[in-house]
Amino acid sequence: MQFSYETKRLNLMILSADNAPLIQHFYQKNAAFLEPFEPARPENFYTIAFHRSNLSCEYRAFLRLTHIRFWLFRKDVPEEPIGSICFSNIMHGAFKKCIIGYKLGEEFCHYGYMQEAISFLIPIVMKELDLHRVEAYVQPDNMPSIRLLEKLHFVEEGYLQKYAEIHGNWTDHLLFSYLRADSLPRF
């Protein structure tokens, strides 16, 4: 698997600890928008030191192909991350699956960036890691994310009560899956 890829409008990159200031700025700028959809953050989350450490861990996990986070950059503004896509909980053996998570900065939503990036990355990740299934978990009221998954040919499989602690509250989630035999639109 490569450290970076290009789509029509985006650069998709694995980042090292040196990029901590960029990521810290992304999260600070989008705190109010992202926090309602994510787990409670540690007290030091908005520091460069936190993101340096986190990026270092993620970089090592990428080298082992156990956790993969690509950061999205627009080609016309290559110095500013606009979001990320993470493939986590990668399982082999009888399961051959992972969980996908994704986020965009508020000002970059509704332009098709995430659809472009996910539709590009899923076939690569599934082939390189020999995965059969990708799962996504979404809060039932997150309609933009549900619409995105449906466009990407994910299928809703079930309703999970009090599945994850998000921003201090146990929240219900919908389970969606994408199977390798399905076909994603290519850009």
Topology:
Layout: E1 4-6, E2 10-13, H1 20-29, H2 31-34, H3 48-64, E3 68-74, E4 77-91, E5 97-104, H4 113-129, E6 133-138, H5 143-151, E7 155-166, E8 169-179
Parallel strand pairs: 5-6
Antiparallel strand pairs: 1-2, 2-3, 3-4, 4-5, 6-8, 7-8
Helix pairs in contact: 1-3
Structure, briefly:
With 187 residues, the protein is of the alpha+beta class. It is built from 5 helices and 8 strands, in the order ββαααβββαβαββ. Helix content is 30%, strand content 35%.
CATH topology: Aminopeptidase
User: Kindly state the mean pLDDT as a whole number?
Assistant: 94
Class derived from helix and strand content: alpha+beta
Helix fraction bin: 25-40%
Tally of discrete structural domains: 1
H/I helix tally: 5
Radius of gyration: 16 Å
H and E order? EEHHHEEEHEHEE
CATH class: Alpha Beta
Question: What's the β-strand tally?
Answer: 8
